[in-house]
Structure formats: structure tokens, C-alpha cells
Design brief:
It is a single chain. This protein is of the alpha/beta class. Helices cover 36% and strands 23% of the residues. The strands form three sheets. A six-stranded mixed β-sheet has the order 2-1-3-4-5-6, sandwiched between helices. A five-stranded mixed β-sheet has the order 12-11-10-14-13. It has a three-stranded mixed β-sheet with strand order 7-9-8, covered by helices on one side. Strand 10 (185-191), helix 8 (197-211) and strand 11 form a beta-alpha-beta unit. The longest helix has 15 residues, at 197-211.
Length: 312
């Protein structure tokens, strides 16, 4: 997880260092100047912003960059003494509430969760969407579903009679329901060392356009573990707001199926194909390879679909 911590005082720096030392597996940077540039970059990437200081300061700083709950970065605030951690933006879809709990556990602070569905223990449509891998096509409808949930009323999901939440591949379907679009594709990537985000993103755009698949339909990016530190793929993951996972050559080679085999790739990384095998591995037990290896100047892509949930 990539976190930028904004600090405004010496006490703020002490807390930021404590968080960084307590979470060694996360990519944490401490920002004490050029706040606007750091915030703009964070919101472009969709990564985590954490401010140490007054909530009012954080709100004023992030205000120009707030667009929509479906794309806004998760933003959290803590007091200088580290007593409380408060998620103030993108609590559900961005995961700010979950991140708050993780940070509190690391530093011994108390989370202050203010989202109504959480504090009342009710169904939250945006939490549900995140958990099961759906894109919310019309987020303005979330409020209506949350209102029913808070009143203790039943929520109907893709009911033949009436739906509060409709699961559909058509983002523009005419309905009063909240539309959940399934994110079903695992994107496998093979790559030469040092490819930039711009190079990968440009190639991916061409690949997905050709296959008539929307970027929002991708739920995970995968590759071989030798590529786990490729900055270009990591930035793609940040910007798409999907996880980036890697597997060993042994794990990929153990998969059964028909793959586009390459002796050169096998000699180089230890398995005969990276993108197809990584996509299928990430798609899960009942995954299916949908689009085989496509090459774009030192970058290869493949797509596998996962089983869509039928029971909740």
C-alpha cells in the first residue's frame, strides 16, 4: 500500500515516523512541503493520503481535488499525538475505513468511523461492491440504497420483480436501481525491464480497444515475481485502483492448460509463458483464459475471466 503522510509540525513528524516504522511492508513517504503537488499526484494515482493535524487543514487542502466517491483517493487524518485516526474521504470504495483500522492497530490509536452504515452495522452498497469486485456505474443511487438499509428495509439485488441493486454489464441501462457492473478480468502482463507507465498504459489501451473490453472490467493485474518491483506496472496498478499480484515461476508452470509457449521466455524467467499463466492464476480456481498473448513492443498482455458470483 502506498501512503503519503502530510505533516505540519515536529510532533507530526514523530507520529509519521512511528507509522512508517510500524508498517515496514508499505510504501510510506513523509511530506513536509509542496503539499499541493503531493496531493495532486496522490489523487491522480488513487493512492492513500494521510494528514497529521487538524481536520480543517486537510479538508481545505484536498477540496480542489475531490471529484467522485468512485475515484477519490482515501484520505485520513490523525491528531499530532496519535490518539485518533479519522477517515474523511472514500471510506468504503477507497478503503479509508479499513486503512484506518490497520494504522490504528499498528500505532495503538483509536479509529473514529463516521459512516452511518458502519456505525449502525447496516448493509453498505459500496462496501459490498468492493468486496465482490463490482464497479458502481451510477453512484448517485447509493444514497437511496443506504437509506433503505438504515431503516431496516430489505434490499433486493437483481430481483426479477424489483431491484434496489441491479447486476448488469450495461452501465447505461435505464433503471432506478443502483447498477453494479461485474469486474471479471484478470490482466496478465509480461514485460521487459524498465518499461514506463506511459508505455504500458498506451499498449494496454490499444489491447483493450482491440478486444472491445473496458478498463473498468479488470479486477486484478498479475505477473511473475521477477517483475514485482517494476515501477511501470506498480503505477498502472495504483492508477487503475486494482491489486498487483505476482507468482513464482514454479507456481505459474504448475498450471494446466494450453499456453503460448516460448523457450526464450522459459530460459529467461523459468516458465514458458508469463502473461497467460499469470492471468489464469489470478482469475482463480474456476478461471478461464479468454484472450491469449498479445505483444506490444516488449510488453505482453493476456486476459482470463473469473467466475461471477451467483450466491451472496
Amino acid at each position: 500500500m502506498k501512503i503519503r503522510i502530510l505533516i505540519f509540525s515536529d510532533n507530526g513528524r514523530k507520529l509519521a515516523e512511528k507509522i512508517k516504522n510500524s508498517m515496514p511492508n508499505d510504501d510510506i513517504s513523509i511530506i513536509d512541503e509542496n503539499y499541493k503537488a503531493a496531493i495532486q499526484t496522490t489523487f491522480t494515482e488513487g493512492t492513500v493520503l494521510f494528514a497529521v493535524g487538524a481536520v480543517g487543514i486537510a479538508v481545505r487542502l484536498i477540496a480542489p481535488y475531490i471529484k467522485s466517491k468512485t475515484i477519490d483517493s482515501p484520505v485520513l487524518v490523525a491528531d499530532e499525538l496519535g490518539k485518533y485516526v479519522i477517515p474523511i474521504l472514500s471510506g468504503h470504495l477507497g478503503g479509508a475505513n479499513e486503512i484506518a483500522l490497520k494504522i490504528c492497530e499498528a500505532i495503538g490509536a483509536e479509529p473514529v468511523i463516521t459512516t452511518a452504515t458502519d456505525i449502525n452495522g447496516c448493509f453498505a452498497a459500496d462496501n459490498f461492491a468492493k468486496k465482490y469486485g463490482f464497479k458502481i456505474a451510477n453512484p448517485e443511487k447509493i444514497k437511496a440504497v443506504s437509506s433503505k438499509s438504515l431503516k431496516g428495509e430489505q434490499i433486493f439485488i437483481s430481483s426479477p420483480e424489483k431491484a434496489d441493486i441491479l447486476i448488469s454489464f450495461d452501465e447505461e441501462e435505464k433503471t432506478d436501481a443502483l447498477i453494479f457492473v461485474p469486474k471479471i478480468y484478470a490482466l496478465g502482463i509480461g514485460i521487459k525491464k524498465g518499461k514506463t507507465y506511459d508505455e504500458i498504459n498506451s499498449a494496454l489501451y490499444e489491447f483493450l480497444e482491440r478486444e472491445n473490453i473496458k478498463k473498468d472490467a479488470v479486477f486484478i493485474i498479475s505477473s511473475i515475481d521477477k517483475k514485482k518491483d517494476e515501477d511501470g506496472i506498480k503505477e498502472l496498478s495504483y492508477r487503475m485502483r486494482v491489486p498487483f499480484v505476482t507468482y513464482s515461476a514454479e507456481e505459474l508452470s504448475a498450471l494446466e492448460g494450453e499456453f503460448t509457449s516460448s523457450e526464450f521466455v522459459k530460459e529467461t524467467v523459468g516458465t514458458d509463458n508469463v502473461c497467460e499463466r499469470a492471468a489464469l492464476k489470478a482469475a482463480g480456481e474456476r478461471g478461464k483464459l479468454e484472450v491469449k498473448k498479445s505483444a506490444f513492443g516488449g510488453i505482453t498482455f493476456a486476459l482470463a475471466s473469473r467466475k461471477i458470483i451467483t450466491e451472496i
